[in-house]
Amino acid sequence: MRTDRRTALERLFLQREIEEFLSVEAELLDARRFEDWLVLLAPDIRYWMPMMRNVHSARGTDESTREQADANWMDEGIETLTQRIRQLATGIHWAEEPVSRTTHMVSNVRLLDIRDGTPCEVDTSCRFLVYRNRQQDEADTFIGKRLDTLRQTEDGWRLARREIRLDQNVLLAKNLTTFF
Amino acid sequence: MDTVSEQDLRRLVDADNGTVSREIFIDRAIFDREMARIFSRAWLFVGHEGLIPKPDDFFASRMGRDPVILTRNRQGEILVFLNSCTHRGMKLCRYDQGNARAFTCPYHGWSFSTNRDIVDEPGELVGVPHFEAGYGDRLDRRRWGLVRCPNVTVYKGTIWANWDAGAPPFLDWLGDMRRYLDFALDHRDGRPGGSEVIGGVQKWRVKTNWKFVAENFAGDMYHDISHRSVDAVGIGPGGKGRRDAQRPRLAIGFSALGHGVLGELPHTVEPEYAPTFASDPEVEAYYRRIYDDRVRNLGNQPRVTNSVGTIFPNMSFHSRQPRTILITHPISPTEVELWRLYLVDADAPQPVKDAARHYYLRYSGPGGMTEADDMENWTYATDSSAGAIARRHDFNYQLALGHAKPAPGLRGAVQSGTYSEENQRIFYRRWTQFMTGGDWSELMPQTTSVEADNAD
Q1: Which helix (H) or strand (E) holds A14?
Q2: Chain B interface includes A71 (CB < 8 A)
Q3: What is the dihedral of CA B255, B260, B261, B267, to 10 degrees?
């Protein structure tokens, strides 16, 4: 339920605060400071990436695979995200050794819903562009939409939920070893 | 090479001495011949019944470089058609899946039906714009129906198709490899069939030759070293520990058929129960219960309990955990489209299905912590083999050369220990047979179907 009583100015500050969070987060990923990124995730995070299908326009709801029911590109919680980061740190995870160079760009940030409560949660939407360059000439561009839920804690904002909608049907990259 | 002669082809693979030319992973003429000689004659996996459960459901699939439509008509028949309009070739169906009473071409509006209440032969042309004015009565609708694949077989939910009208039955093609496929498709409690496919097919592109993928799953335990990073962090099905605990496996190759598997020989006693989902009591209780059911259901029948393999040419599977099918569709000599489907017991409780799905996705597919490294291996092996000098140097397939001995309980199969490239040598020998060979009497000299043998 929407309980937000903020003034327009307060909403503007909140918008800026959240944009700043998303930019910092992107920066941490590009700098490969994955342990620091992990700190920004809520312990109960849901991080998932549905797959897109070509279906008749009248069957729009079938366009993406379903959460907690179908196969997806990724379906993660804090435990497996932590394992992925530990795997990256082994130095023998050949899909990321030598490491890829990435740039994460986040734009069109909107606050969809603000739920004042304990704690306060904000649903946001944005667009992302992730560029990955690997070895000499291997380049992937991932573009799509993200639906994030951010939670306010005593230590700052934490990511509680992330749905990553990639604008590809057949994944054109050989693997997904970066975070979105 | 611009064109490729049979003589050239016979020089590329020396299975007896364990060498294979890099040309077969790079060369365009060889690739074109593979499409004509292998993919147009082999039994190919085209989908699963669960993708087309209702009448008129369809799923867009592939057979080699050819797009096909897999559909179920109103009479319940499962049909496969070339996905290309007979008039001007437009890709007729451009959805991944759906439900349609007729397939109508977006280009000039030709329309085709599979419904036997309307047409004699499924796929027949039923609608042609300006039929009277434009064609008079000179257009033969039957002659211009969709190109239909003559052989389609359903096996425990999986659907297979073959373009060659003279091809042997699917079960002959499969031979005793069937035991290993069965373990992937059967219910964990030992009942035949009983698995279902989880919704959503993962599809992704990898710049590699299709045979790198096929041979990897045919029995390359040797490459396990490249997965040390997942073992180090522990992604076992319980969310902790190493990958799923494995019993010792052997390279088992079906010499006459080209299939290969890393698995156990058939045995008649169920191996002792090993807890797998210890972190989730409800899921663990299910597997414990299913184990007891299995011991009861199978009695002293032969069984295999653990395997990963490839059915020649391009269908690979994991039969335990993850329990999944991987199809390698060739796109070009140096590109494939991989499709992964995931299987679970159809009547398992939802928490069991959820736990399996989560484990599968963190293991397999492009986002899988294990499979991500496989793609790295295959792409760079392909790329670094393309140079003029590299092409002159063969690959080595000599691991455990000369160690093959008959595999008890499996007709026409040999086993060669855990670390062996015998299955790869078998795969490439079969490949050469298809690329150079003649008719089916030469390719399938004796029957190898399970039915023919009651020794079990």
Answers
A1: helix A8-30
A2: yes
A3: -20
